[in-house]
Design brief:
Length: about 400
């Protein structure tokens, strides 16, 4: 039961905390919910009252949010696209009376945006995580239409990179002053257990004499894993003891495995599936590769930088906003397997240069992408939006 509250400015003369409700599709561990945990960890609770809701399904992130003092709610709709989520979200917003509803990803953007408009929420924020639409042609038109509809619902859009902002303004036609860029960030671990690193490295198929190239990505079209496989075939001819491991799962797993088998790369390239121990896996890698065809601001890139791992990545989306080619990373044109193989070979050929690139990436992360600093910017923006709404600007 959610107790209905008011939206008065002060209680007993003390300014009321700004109420923010975040809406996600599920509480499964994924890009948006992992970032929501960072927001919950670092947002100033003396100024903000934070709660979170999911449309359906629940998930392990819910207990993590609760442990951080976040009130959580499950709209408990039977399916992913059940329109009853709109009415249930509207009822939640009517009880909580948030100053801000902040939605994440397509279903939450659609259902939460409609519900927040219906409930009269003064500030509605949607985070745009990626340049899109990014599916193959069969779904591209539908995704583009849904993106356009969802773009009409929020009062403001938060883009995770300048590239995403350009996409929102150029492709979706959003007014530039509605779209604000705040990069995401990460909390680097204090340490990673060396025994864990050795264990994971062995499980990923790399022995002491192997060089391990790691990719953390969903096995879907936009992540460019086909390009990685083709690049791996070229790298193997120069570095026969190089090993490639891909952490993640997705709809293209069968197709990608057939490609690996067809190229005779079964010993060289492994599709590992989803793993919880991403930090030890990244620490175990000699090189981290991101062969994406489209990106916003990939979390795995920031995590690799946090561990000072040398990164070889596509020059696409928000990636070149985080790393400088030749200094804090090595970039290749998206979809260009030959150039990607050359950049990977450069990283494998010169361990000292690769280590220097990794250190430069870590320094850049500490300067711009620490989660605690990013969330401070969130708080400042939230407060400015609420003040604008009270002044009649929003």
């Amino acid at each position: 039961m959610v107790q209905r509250v008011g939206r008065s400015d002060a209680i007993d003369g003390t300014p009321r905390r700004t109420r923010v409700v975040h809406l996600v599709s599920t509480f499964a561990a994924k890009t948006d919910t992992k970032w929501l945990v960072q927001i919950a960890r670092h947002l100033d609770r003396t100024r903000f009252e934070l709660s979170a809701a999911c449309c359906y399904g629940g998930g392990p992130i819910e207990s993590e949010l609760r442990s951080l003092g976040v009130a959580t709610h499950n709209l408990d709709t039977p399916g992913e696209w059940d329109i009853r989520a709109v009415g249930r979200a509207r009822a939640l917003f009517a009880c909580v009376r948030p100053d801000i509803v902040h939605t994440h990803l397509l279903r939450a953007d659609l259902f939460g945006g409609l519900a927040a408009r219906w409930a009269g929420v003064p500030v509605i924020v949607s985070t745009a995580y990626a340049v899109g639409p990014y599916r193959r042609a069969v779904r591209r038109k539908l995704d583009g239409l849904l993106d356009a509809v969802c773009g009409l619902l929020p009062t403001h859009v938060l883009a995770v990179s300048d590239a995403v902002r350009r996409d929102c303004v150029g492709r979706l036609g959003l007014a530039a002053d509605r779209v604000r860029v705040i990069h995401t960030g990460v909390d680097p671990p204090d340490t990673v257990d060396p025994d864990e690193i050795r264990r994971v490295r062995t499980e990923l198929g790399a022995g002491p004499d192997n060089q391990l190239i790691l990719t953390v990505a969903r096995l879907s079209y936009e992540k460019g894993i086909e390009v990685l496989i083709d690049a791996a075939a070229a790298v193997r001819t120069r570095y026969p003891r190089a090993r490639f491991a891909v952490l993640g799962d997705g709809p293209l797993r069968g197709e990608l495995q057939r490609r690996i088998d067809r190229l005779g790369l079964g010993e060289c390239v492994r599709l590992v599936g989803f793993r919880e121990d991403v930090w030890p896996a990244l620490a175990a890698a000699n090189v981290v590769c991101m062969p994406s065809l489209m990106e916003g601001m990939p979390n795995a890139l920031l995590e690799a930088m946090a561990l000072a791992r040398p990164v070889v990545a596509s020059d696409v989306g928000g990636i070149p906003e985080a790393i400088v080619d030749g200094a804090s990373g090595l970039l290749a044109p998206p979809g260009d397997a030959a150039t990607l193989a050359d950049r990977l070979s450069q990283a494998l050929a010169d361990a000292e240069r690769a280590a220097a690139i990794g250190r430069a990436g870590r320094a850049e992360l500490e300067r711009r992408f620490l989660a605690r600093d990013v969330v401070v910017r969130y708080g400042q923006w939230y407060e400015s939006l609420v003040q604008q709404s009270r002044d009649g600007v929003v």
